[in-house]
Design a protein that fits this description.
Elements lengths: L1 H20 L1 H4 L10 E11 L2 E2 L1 H4 L5 E8 L3 E7 L5 E13 L2 E7 L15 H12 L6 H10 L4 E8 L3 E14 L1 H7 L13 E14 L5 E14 L2 E13 L23 H19 L1
Antiparallel strand pairs: 1-2, 1-3, 1-11, 3-4, 4-5, 5-6, 7-8, 8-9, 9-10, 10-11
């Protein structure tokens, strides 16, 4: 009797220990799949009201395929327009932020987990981190580049999560900025654009939006909107830049219209009007007899 009791107690302890150990690993949930090519392309590069995205064509197109997933992150391969490949990884690890540890991506977050570790809804968790910390975490490198060329006097960040997207918003203002930052935004060195960028810019407003799909966690698009003033001697004019880099989504198939059917004629086209006249006449006759 005692032996059976000890056996049952041992099984109970084993099950209980597994219940406390495995959820951390089992709770990680990814909404994206491996071996699927995700194509990102330049949709908009608008300067002075003209869109130069087609000028670059496929040169800035990037294809991404996830190779493997585990409890803390993933590996992925990128394919550029010239056929070059690069294997990368992104890890979601605890990092000290202020007095707390926060689980954040280390590496480019092409996708966010839907849940990870003890966090059941990571998109909500990450959005709340942006809200409460006013963090430019995903734009730290860009922000560092800007501060090398400008005295940034205002920054703000917030997020919105709905059934379609997690949207992260970052706003920045600098009274004056060297236009070299535009080259940083568009790539190192010469941008290759058929127009010259201004050398001096004031009233520099940068609004950035980054969206992740709420169902899969996949990066959907990035938008940069710059509103500023350019100066050439004593002449000043608005200098606006719009950049959008987005996941390619094939257009839905065009609806097919049902084939037109020719009306079929009754073999007795006189039948219906004749019956109608007959019924009306019969009613009149019956009423007259009454």
């Amino acid at each position: 009797m005692k032996k059976r009791l000890f056996v049952n107690l041992g099984v109970l302890l084993l099950v209980t220990s597994l219940a406390f150990v495995t959820p951390t690993k089992a709770a990680t949930n990814w909404g994206v799949e491996t071996d699927v090519i995700n194509k990102y392309e330049l949709i908009t590069l608008k300067l002075g009201g003209l869109n130069y995205a087609d000028y670059f064509g496929e040169n800035l197109t990037l294809r991404v395929a996830f190779d493997s997933f585990d409890d803390t992150g993933y590996t992925y391969t990128t394919y550029n327009s010239t056929g070059g490949t690069s294997v990368n990884e992104t890890r979601f690890i605890e990092m000290p932020v202020g007095e707390e540890n926060v689980t954040l991506p280390e590496g480019l977050p092409i996708a966010l987990p839907l849940s990870i570790g003890s966090i059941p809804d990571y998109l909500l968790y990450f959005g709340q981190f942006i809200n409460t910390s006013n963090s430019f975490y995903l734009l730290e490198e860009l922000l560092l580049n800007i501060t090398e060329y400008a005295n940034v006097t205002y920054t703000a960040a917030h997020s919105l999560l709905d059934e379609t997207y997690l949207k992260l918003y970052f706003d920045l203002f600098a009274p004056e900025v060297n236009a070299s930052i535009l080259s940083e935004l568009m790539g190192e060195g010469d941008t290759g654009l058929p127009i010259a960028l201004p050398a001096n810019i004031t009233d520099f407003n940068l609004n950035t939006t980054i969206k992740f799909n709420s169902t899969s966690g996949l990066l959907y698009d990035m938008t940069f909107i710059i509103r500023s003033q350019s100066h050439i001697g004593d002449y000043k004019e608005a200098f606006d830049v719009d950049i959008k880099y987005a996941l390619y989504v094939p257009p839905p198939p065009e609806p097919t219209e049902p084939p037109e059917t020719e009306p079929t004629e009754s073999p007795y086209p006189w039948f219906l009007p004749t019956i109608t006249v007959f019924v009306i006449a019969s009613v009149l006759i019956v009423r007259r007899r009454k």
